[in-house]
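Researcher: I've got a protein sequence and the SMILES for magnesium ion. Could you write out the 3D structure of the bound complex as C-alpha cells? I'd like something to compare against our soaking experiments later this week.
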Amino acid sequence: MTIRAVVFDLDGTLVDSLPDIGGSMNQVLRSLGLPPHPLSAYREFVGEGVLRLVERALPPGFAAREQAVAAFREVYGARLTAESRVYPGIAELLAGLEARGVPCAVCSNKPHGMTERVVRALLGEASFVCVEGERPERPRKPDPAAALDVARALGVAPSEVAFVGDTKTDMQTAVAAGMQPVGVAWGFRDRAELEEHGAALVVEDPAELLAWAQAAGPGA
Ligand SMILES: [Mg+2]
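Model: Sure. Here is the predicted complex with magnesium ion in place.
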C-alpha cells in the first residue's frame, strides 16, 4: 500500500467546532422555546450535514423544521469560527505533509461556502489542493461522490489516498471510494465506532498520522 495524498474531514478532525455548532443550535432552540442540549450531545449530532444536525437536535415530529434549518444557517454562519479552534498538532502535520510532497485536501459535509470560510479563517496557511464541502447537487458523505471528485482534483488514484476522519460517516466514505480509511481518536466519536466501520488505522495524535503517512509514502 502506497499513500500519495491525504484527504481530511473538517469538523472533529482538523477543527474543534463543537462550541460554535452546538452554541448556534442551542440559540435556535431557545428562540423556538425549546430546551438546549449539553454541548457534548452535539458530538453525536454532527457529521452528516446541516439537515441531519438540526433534525437530531429538534424534538421528534417538530413541524417547523425548515424554519429551524434556515435559522441555524443564519446564526451559525454569523459566528462560524468565533470559538472554533484547530486541534493541537494539526498545523505541524499539514506542514510536514507538504514538506514531504504529499498533497492534501478537505472533504466535509458542511455546506460548501461555510467549509471554505472555516478553512480560510483557521487553516489559511495550509496549502490544500482542493476544499470541498456539501453541495446541493451532490450526495453527501458517506456517498463517495465528493471524495472521488477530490481524488480527481488531486490527480491521485483513490487506492493511494488516505481519507482521514472522526466519524463512521468518514470511514464509510473511504470504504465506498476505495480509499484507505484512517480514523482520528481526538474527534467527536470513539475508537470503537471508527474500527467498526472500516478504519484501517486509528491514530491517537497528528504526529502518529504524519509518521504513518511517511512510512506509507511512495519513497518508503
Ligand atoms: Mg467530522
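Model: The chain has two domains: 5-16+85-215, 18-79. Residues 65-79 form the longest helix (15 residues).
Researcher: Great, I'll pass this along to the crystallography team.
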